[in-house]
Every structure is written in structure tokens, then in C-alpha cells.
Amino acid sequence: MKTIDIYTSPFCGFCHAAKRLLSQKGVSFSEFDVARDPDKRKEMMQRAPGSRTVPQIFVGETHVGGCDELYALEQSGKLDPLLSA
Predict the structure, then answer these.
(1) Contact 15, 9 (CB under 8 A)
(2) Considering only CA atoms, which of 24, 38, 74, 82 is closest in space to residue 58?
(3) What is the DSSP string of 10-78?
(4) 20, 78 in Cβ contact below 8 A?
(5) How far apart are CA 14 and CA 73, in angstroms?
(6) How many domains does the chain have?
(7) Residue 2: per-residue pLDDT
(8) What domain range is 33 assigned to?
(9) CATH number of the domain residue 80 falls in
(10) How far from 64 is each of 36, 50, 78, CA to CA, in Å?
(11) pLDDT in tens for each of the 85 residues of the chain?
């Protein structure tokens, strides 16, 4: 299974929703709090150029995007294959 990284901040409802979906899928993920760690915010912005909002989600080296994109993958049936590839 690919590694999953999610960049978040503590009071972000979209972050909580994205983490909830990933947890429901039974996948583990690494969470990076960009509010507390400015270096992680810089890292996020380097991995996802032009992205300044959270969450930013990566499955392996694939940049999924934010919560809306994650749920769109789920709705289209493309999330499970991405997670298991």
C-alpha cells in the first residue's frame, strides 16, 4: 500500500472530513500540522505548487488535492484503486 500524507491545521473542518474518510477506508496516513510547523507548510507548498490551503493530500507521489477532490475520487469509484495500487 502506498504512503498517504495529509497536511492539515487543527481547526479545519475539511481536514477533519478528509481524515474521517481515510480512516473509514481503513488506511493509515501521516498527518502534518502546518499551523504548528512552518517548515511543513513550506514542504507542502513545494510538493503542491500553488496550493496554500489545507488539507493537501498525497497518495504516494500522486497529489490528490484537497477534501473536495478526495471525495470526488470516492464518488467516482477511483479512490480505492488509487489507495491499493
Answers:
(1) yes
(2) 82
(3) TT-HHHHHHHHHHHHTT---EEEETTT-HHHHHHHHHHSTT--SS-EEEETTEEEESHHHHHHHHHTT-
(4) no
(5) 15
(6) 1
(7) 86
(8) 4-84
(9) 3.40.30.10
(10) 23, 14, 11
(11) 689 999 999 999 999 999 999 999 999 999 999 999 999 999 999 999 999 999 999 999 999 999 999 999 999 999 999 999 7
Cell numbers linked to 30: 501521516
* Residue carrying C-alpha cell 479545519: 12
How far is Cα 64 from Cα 73, in angstroms, rounded to an integer? Answer: 9
Whose cell is 471525495? That residue is 71
**What type of residue sits at position 60?**
G
Global confidence as pTM:
0.95
CB 43 within 8 Å of CB 32? yes
